[in-house]
Amino acid sequence: xxxxxxxxxxxxxxxxxxxxxxxxxxxxxxxxxxxxxxxxxxxxxxxxxxxxxxxxxxxxxxxxxxxxxxxxxxxxxxxxxxxxxxxxxxxxxxxxxxxxxxxxxxxxxxxxxxxxxxxxxxxxxxxxxxxxxxxxxxxxxxxxx
Length: 145
Prior knowledge:
The protein is an alpha+beta fold. It has a single domain (3-134), classed as Nuclear Transport Factor 2, Chain: A. 31% of the residues lie in helices and 39% in strands. It has helices spanning 3-19, 22-27, 44-58, 128-134; strands at 29-35, 63-72, 75-85, 90-92, 95-97, 103-115, 118-126. A hairpin with a 2-residue loop joins strand 2 and strand 3 (75-85).
């Protein structure tokens, strides 16, 4: 993939997510896209749609702002600011949380690799601690054994 093609696909994917067009965003992904940031049950296109649906249920006003994008060859790095109000249940298996009504604003970094016109791999880093604190969760470190 050329840098121009990768940038177009990554930009289109991000814009579709931002607009809530999950089917359109998923169509830009390979069926077996590997999400290195997700549990095994959340892999591929279907896993992507499940994750985004859970987020949009928990945060109906979910908003993404693209702050920076760096593209080189078949990879794109996107730095986002994410915001929203948790008016619905957060139903992730490792973090179920009833609606809090609280607003959050935190950063994410996403890296995608593109091949044959589709996103085939995804990595993510998120400031989850900031989100948890804004939702009122007490985060307690676990002592090493």
